[in-house]
Amino acid sequence: MNSLLLSITWNIDPVAFSIGPVSVRWYGLLFAVGFLLAVYMLGRIFKAEKLPDDWADKTFLYIIVGVVIGARLAHVFFYDWAYYKDHLSEILMIWHGGLASHGGVLGGVIAMVFLSKKVMKKPLLWLGDRVFAVAGITATCIRLGNLMNSEIYGHETTLPWGFKYLRDFPSLPEALVPACHPTQIYEALAYFSMFLVMMFLYWKKDFGKKYTGMLFGIGFIWVFLFRFIIEFIKNDQSDFEADMILNMGQLLSIPFIIYGIYLIINAIKKKQ
User: Fold this and answer.
1) How far apart are CA 135 and CA 140, in angstroms?
2) Closest by CA position to 257, among listed 144, 104, 102
């Protein structure tokens, strides 16, 4: 059968709906839904541990600020500094697009440092275990938002689940639009499976109490190892990556993976 018949045509409008002059995009909507779901489940964790009712909301406020600032600055400095060095006034214009997940995670962790010390008076690893137990659902929603934007997809493929992103090829007839790896879906599936495993380890195996830092470490390895692997079939985000053996996303993933391994080893040693 012709491989052109074994592909998925994708031409979704990135705008979910409009209210007067205000347009709500799928990406922003899914971003918000992902965070709200995580806050709800984090609230259940805190309630089960008989912790203050407002801790989940405070965690959300600290982390959302850290994630957005970190993701924006990482995009600016690691992926598009050639542009922004001449357009400094646009650095804070996040509504124009441009967020990098590595910076988002780092920004979120920095926010957790302040939150754990100033508000909760708990160790960072304690908080990290609980935040990463629910973070997979947020990451899943964000990658589905990328899918709705028809962005960060992969190389051409003849596999039957290849996506034809028509919005990126407006001048080509549909028959000539290449089918590409839907890497947003690959990552979304990886993060959702992480969420399911984390929920099992926290609620059924009591890892949050038995192994301080274990869930934190598993989260780092799970997210960034999958990211590292998927990057091999993902299109480069910036032109300067074309001649790199490992692209920027892979290079930035390595420190997080190493830190995750350290956290797991440390958690096992403390248990012993």
Assistant:
1) 9
2) 102
Q: Are β-strands 162-165 and 7-10 bridged in parallel, bridged antiparallel, or unpaired? A: parallel
101-114 helix and 214-230 helix, angle to the nearest 10 degrees: 170
- Residue 232 near residue 192, CB atoms below 8 Å: no
Q: What is the pLDDT of residues 235-272, one digit of tens each?
A: 988 878 888 899 999 999 999 999 999 999 999 998 76
| Beta bridge partner(s), residue 154 | 234
9-12 contacts, C-beta under 8 A, 24 or more apart: 9/163, 9/164, 9/166, 9/174, 10/147, 10/150, 10/163, 10/164, 10/165, 10/166, 10/182, 11/150, 11/165, 11/166, 11/167, 12/148, 12/150
The three-state DSSP-derived secondary structure of the chain is CCHHHCEEEECCCCEEEEECCEEEEHHHHHHHHHHHHHHHHHHHHHHHCCCCCCHHHHHHHHHHHHHHHHHHHHHHHHHCHHHHCCCHHHCCCHHHCCCCHHHHHHHHHHHHHHHHHHHHCCCHHHHHHHHHHHHHHHHHHHHHHHHHCCCCCECECCCCCEEEEHHHCCCCCHHHCCCECCHHHHHHHHHHHHHHHHHHHHHCCCHHHHCCCHHHHHHHHHHHHHHHHHHHHECCCCHHHHHCCCCHHHHHHHHHHHHHHHHHHHHHHHHC
Percent pLDDT > 70 in the chain is 98
What tens digit of pLDDT does each residue of 72-85 get? 999 899 888 888 88
β-bridge partners, 8: 163
- Confidence (pLDDT) at 272: 61
Q: What is the pTM of this model?
A: 0.91
